[in-house]
Design a protein that fits this description.
It is found in: Cell membrane; Membrane. By secondary structure, the protein is an alpha+beta fold. The chain is about 60% helix and about 10% strand. It is built from eleven helices and seven strands.
Length: about 400
Amino acid sequence: MTKPRRPAQAGRTVRQRFTALYGVLFLLSAVGLLAITNLVSLGSRISAHGGGPPSGAQLTLETAQEHIALLQSRLSETEALQSRQLLIGSVIALAVMAVVSLVLGRLVAGRVLRPLRTITASTRRISADNLHERLAVQGPADEVKDLADTIDGLLERLEGSFAAQRRFVADASHELRTPLATMRASLDVAVAKPEPVPAQTIALADRLRVELDQVDRLLEGFLTLARTQHGALSDRATVSLGRMVSAALDDRAADIADKDLTVHDGEVDDRAWTRGSRTLLSRMVDNVIDNAIVHNRRGGWIRVAATADGETARLVVETGGELLDQEQVALLIRPFQRLGTDRTGSDNGSGLGLSIVSAVATAHGGVLDLRARPEGGLRVTVSLPLAAALTGAPA
């Protein structure tokens, strides 16, 4: 349950901290400015002293008048010199304190804004796959702490919403299996009666079985998608992408022959191993191959490759066909997105295949990339962490 936010305590707010810091900096700048100005003008005042009346001489009226004129002249020169010195000192002090103020202001602003940078960096790292993480900012109960607690509360609510949505999908898919099984059993019983069954009833039963199988595949896709998004990676093992591809192609040899497809063997690197759930990774490879077979034209071709590059293992599946729009292709990772029957000549499929591939790849630290080939057709690339990079040992 989300804890209620506590208001910032009086006397400890960021506003008051900024006020205090800026006041201290302004005071120090003023003191420094006055000190530099006085030091510069002090020298000119010292040098201006001296030049008293002539000693040992008998002052006469004429001599006194000359001495007074000389003193007045020296006083004027001294005042002009002091004015110039004061102006130069003020300019120098202003320039020095401007530089010092900028440096101090940058240091103080960086220190005060450090918690905000921490909050920003932590928030960027949090996504739908790690909503359990929290900012947990430590410090005084000020506006920054209040902001961090608010974001933590939002993340907690989002995590609950995501978990509830995934549980609903998984529970609904599981519960719907029972009525589907009952419907399928009822069809079998109706068709298996000893008395003659009308041909229309048999045709209707076959049609319903096909639809029930489609719904069953859809529910299985929902369950797999929910399981993957929950991050429940059981039966972890180090698997070979090349072997999984070979097994998937062998299991679908009949479907490939039925559509008269040509399979071109691409590069298969023996180092293309990754680590994760064997069941989910196998489902991922099966979905990519199924997508290449089902959404392909009769007499088309498929090229499959499994490579290793640096710390990444890649599965690449290419198909020929018509020119596709890249913007529409990029949307295929969303559930129930299709390019239509014009490309495939078939409306089979639940629309979850590539969504499951993307979810499985993400759950294993990888990524799915879909590209429309310039020559026509589609290029599907699944990039996963190389097993050697994960384990630190050669695969």
